[in-house]
Specification:
The chain is mainly alpha-helical. It has three domains: 331 residues, no CATH class; 82 residues, no CATH class; 26 residues, no CATH class. It has 16 helices and six strands. The chain has a two-stranded antiparallel ribbon with strand order 1-2. The protein has a two-stranded antiparallel ribbon with strand order 3-4. Helix 6 packs parallel to helix 14. The relative contact order is 0.10. The N terminus and C terminus are likely disordered. It is found in: Cell membrane; Membrane. This is NADH-quinone oxidoreductase subunit H. It catalyses: a quinone + NADH + 5 H(+)(in) = a quinol + NAD(+) + 4 H(+)(out).
Length: 470
């Protein structure tokens, strides 16, 4: 939250652009309730469709048909799976904390729906004679609300792992919590550039500011960082490290079954739609048509119910990206993923935010002639842009060099021994490449010839006599 307030303070120092906000003056409470129910139904139907879509697309990528039995083209397969989850036995572990065990999936599922309330899915429409925007609500810090709700959703994950009373869910909950918190920082930093360009944190005003130019062009680096972080935020491949079956047996929801497991499943897919909707709103003009098309006929393509169509089309572009990544990339290693977030994404995004602040300040022209004064010298916009780009590239090059240097140092410091005893720790260990096995101590002891001593006993229990060899 402090990150967003800092960004709000930076944006507040700049002149605000004249972008109209959503007008809810003609929206009674029952119309707002209808819109909330409509958003809920929209997300539920979209979730049913995207699960079918994901299975069909990945099936095509792997040269298999995918679901094609229940309903036309297998469209009812997801509905059948949902009914199966409702009818399955709901098992609660004996050592689980019953109340927290039930509360965790509810938190994970409901928080995903709350974030969608501030997303404008269309323009102003008429509902039962009332002119209202296709948005449940809007506040001056709407984007911060999404980040705050996402932070609360982390509690569902960590509480699920802790309340299960098992080791593997606890490890999965801790791993997923660390992953989500780490990538929320980079995600929040990537959005600061949008606040600086639009001069607002209101989603409706950000959409209005993109009527002539989508922010994916001036804030291209922020868009790239956001796409990476939104995949990590939703625990999707190649970043589904909380569900690494090889080491965690399924992650924080290992002990869940029936509808409580389905709640986590639903929350994951709704979160995908939420982060994709936020990307559409902040970078792709939201519900607005592309500038060239909307310029032909604003009344037909620019707003109203047409906006819902454009918004849905952009949203499904991101959903296809999620599916494409899952079917194409392998799971990354956890330490590499965390190092990438903390040591690369966060520092380079900070440098990008500073660069955008200088560029935006030069464009607004604090001196009235689009020039900026730094250390007593006047710099043009082109100079500030070039210096900022060089700074970001230099930071990236320094990170790559540091990473390679650390890898070389680790390779030199940790050298495996040339000879190993496979039974040294009591259980067989296979040799690494370049190693050779030595004869185990147990085998050496077994092959030694026995030595006769005076302490040896006779079968009758009396001490054996020493033989006189003359």
């Amino acid at each position: 939250m402090s990150l967003g307030l800092t960004a709000y303070g930076m944006a507040a120092t700049l002149p605000l652009t004249e972008n109209p906000s959503a007008d809810f003056s003609d929206t009674p409470w029952w119309v707002a309730l209808i819109k909330a129910v409509g958003i809920f139904v929209y997300l539920l139907v979209s979730t049913l469709l995207v699960i079918w879509f994901e299975r069909r697309v990945i099936g095509r990528m792997q040269q298999r048909p995918g679901p094609n039995r229940n309903g036309p083209f297998g469209l009812l397969q997801t509905l059948a799976d949902g009914m199966k989850s409702m009818l399955k036995e709901d098992i609660t572990p004996a050592r689980a904390e019953k109340f927290i065990y039930t509360l965790a999936p509810l938190i994970a599922a409901t928080m995903a729906f709350v974030s969608f309330a501030i997303i404008p899915v269309g323009g102003t429409v008429s509902i039962f004679g009332h002119e209202t925007p296709l948005q449940v609500t809007d506040v001056p810090v709407s984007v911060l609300l999404v980040l705050a709700v996402a932070s609360v959703g982390v509690y569902g994950i960590v509480l699920a792992g802790w309340s299960s009373g098992s080791t593997y869910p606890l490890l999965g909950g801790l791993r997923s919590t660390a992953q989500v918190i780490s990538y929320e920082i980079a995600m929040g930093l990537s959005l600061v550039a949008i606040f600086l360009y639009s001069g607002s944190m209101s989603t409706s005003q950000i959409v209005s500011a993109q009527s002539s130019l989508w922010y994916i062009l001036p804030a291209f680096f922020s868009f790239a960082v956001y796409v990476i972080t939104m995949v990590g935020e939703t625990n999707r491949l190649p970043f589904d490290l909380a569900e690494g079956e090889g080491e965690l047996t399924g992650g924080f929801h290992t002990e869940y079954s029936s509808m409580r497991f389905a709640m986590f499943f639903l929350g994951e897919y709704v979160n995908m739609f939420t982060v994709a909707a936020l990307a559409t709103t902040l970078f792709l003009g939201g519900w607005q048509a592309p500038p060239l098309i909307s310029g032909i006929n604003d009344n037909m393509f620019g707003g109203g119910w047409w906006g819902l169509l454009w918004f849905t089309a952009k949203l499904w572009m991101f959903m296809f990206l999620f599916v494409w990544l899952r079917g194409s990339l392998p799971r990354v290693r956890y330490d590499q993923f965390m190092r990438f977030g903390w040591k690369f994404l966060i520092p380079i995004t900070l440098a990008w935010v500073v660069a955008v602040a200088f560029i935006r300040g030069a464009q607004l022209g604090f001196l009235g002639d689009s020039r900026l004064t730094i250390a007593g010298r006047e710099l043009s916009v082109a100079t500030v842009v070039i210096v900022s780009v060089i700074a970001v590239v230099a930071l990236a090059a320094a990170w790559v060099w540091d990473d390679k240097r650390a890898a070389r140092a680790a390779a030199e410091d940790v050298l495996p021994p040339e000879e190993i005893d496979p039974f040294e720790d009591g259980y067989p260990v296979p040799p690494l490449p370049g190693q050779r096995l030595v004869e185990p101590r147990q085998r050496l002891a077994a092959t030694r010839e026995p030595v006769l001593t005076t302490a040896s006993s006779s079968p009758t229990g009396a001490p054996a006599k020493e033989e006189d060899h003359g």
